[in-house]
Design brief:
about 230 residues, alpha/beta, 5-stranded parallel beta sheet
Length: about 230
């Protein structure tokens, strides 16, 4: 029995050593030469970051001059706060991009989404109120309330994601009137292309081929039958 215990201990120790070697080698860039890869200790957990052009492999070690990053060299933050005027995964993706810009992320949510990732993943999140009996979606379409929250939270830009208010010229105009940047098309573009009939007219005027159909919108059953 004692021999079996010692054998199991030895096997587990060997697996641990091999695992450490595999995990450390995962950090080695594939572009590095095989000789450099082989020269690195298999049990090292040090993260190697080097480019082929600036790597000195004469002594079997990777060395490179890493430029210092100072505050003056950092890219300018486009907006201090950006609101994601959407929900769920769409809002989460917007927040991720906002974080990469070093801006603050702001989320909106309804009570039904209070446990949602997009609420807790943002730097700030605000509850949308809705009328009794109203659907949760209606709150995400409440332009006045969203603009009010954005102004009170000092939001400088609003990203609508897709769906909801992303194609609303009224929402884009409300953002502009409040001094908030709408991350999306201009109000003029939205007025033209948010409506299929006007978008078709614009395409014909620009010489873009379109599917054959009526020249104007059909408003009555008689027009459809004709």
């Amino acid at each position: 029995f004692d021999n079996m215990v010692h054998f199991r201990t030895a096997v587990l120790a060997a697996i641990a050593v091999v695992g450490m070697g595999m995990s450390s080698s995962a950090f080695v860039p594939s572009s590095l030469s095989p000789s450099l890869t082989k020269s690195m200790p298999s049990t090292s957990s040090r993260l190697m970051v080097a480019s082929v052009e600036s790597t000195d492999i004469s002594d079997g070690s990777a060395t490179t001059d890493i430029p210092k990053i100072t505050a003056e060299k950092l890219p300018q933050i486009p907006f201090k706060k950006i609101m994601a005027a959407n929900r769920a995964e769409i809002s989460v993706r917007i927040q991720r991009a906002v974080t990469e810009l070093n801006s603050g992320s702001v989320a909106i949510y309804v009570d039904e989404d209070r446990y949602g990732q997009h609420r807790w993943g943002a730097d700030e999140s605000f509850l949308l109120e809705k009328e009794s009996g109203a659907t949760p979606i209606s709150a995400y379409l409440d332009i006045d309330q969203i603009i009010k929250i954005a102004k009170e939270a000092d939001v400088e830009a609003i990203h609508p994601g897709y769906g909801f208010l992303s194609e609303s010229p009224q929402f884009a105009q409300a953002c502009g009137d409040a001094g908030i940047t709408f991350v999306g098309p201009t109000v003029e573009n939205l007025n033209t292309f948010s409506d299929k009939t006007s978008a078709r007219t614009a395409a014909i005027a620009a010489g873009v081929p379109v599917v054959p159909g009526s020249d104007d919108a059909l408003r009555t059953a008689a027009e459809v039958n004709d």
